[in-house]
Amino acid sequence: MSDRSGTATASRAERKERTRRALVDGTLATIEDRSFASVSLREVTRAAGIVPTAFYRHFASMEDLGVAVVEDSMRMLRRVMRDARRHPSAENARESLGLLVGQIRDHDVQFRFLLRERNGGVPEVRRAIATELRLIVHELVQDLERIPALQDWPTDDLDMVANLIVNTMLAAVVDLLDVRPNSVAERDVVERALAQLRVVMLGMGQWQPRTAIRERGPAARG
């Protein structure tokens, strides 16, 4: 009896997860070229193949669904950034940009959704995107702290570098979405982003951490 009960519970959980997944996927299919705010609950449930009343078994509101779409879409960007965080180098930057291009081509709708909703639309969705980006920056700061040459850097300086790297990647995403795959324009975007990341890395080598400047005092700065 217990085995059958456990199997039934697992089956219900699996069905619930499949329906939740269908709602997220249905939302992405619906918002391919629209804002999230313009999508209705009825459209989403129709795309997911469920009745509207079943929606509330999975999400408390459309805003709650939007946050789930953000979290799902951000996994692609976080995966690329995790690879980039292993160690900042020109070789790793090129590899990471190549991975980014692949993710964008495979998940075009998700990336367009994130960029479209980042600065407008539903406040809950906008806040969820900002939270996810802050988490990416925070994780990058933690990895930078482990690099011996950066161990004396204050957190504020590491945070500044992390933001520069993340914003460079986001700018590349914007440009890549506007060019054709495997085109000269695409290669130009990648090379420009790589050059920008190299400038950041070169700047890190010359940067004087603000704690060191304070320790030397005004005379040293003068």
From TrEMBL:
Highest taxon in the source lineage: Bacteria
Domain HTH tetR-type: 17-77
DNA-binding region: 40-59
InterPro entries: DesT_TetR_C, Homeodomain-like_sf, HTH_TetR, HTH_transcr_repressor_FabR
Pfam families: TetR_C_46 (PF21943), TetR_N (PF00440)
Keywords for the protein's UniProt record, in alphabetical order: DNA-binding, Transcription, Transcription regulation
Name of the protein in question: TetR family transcriptional regulator
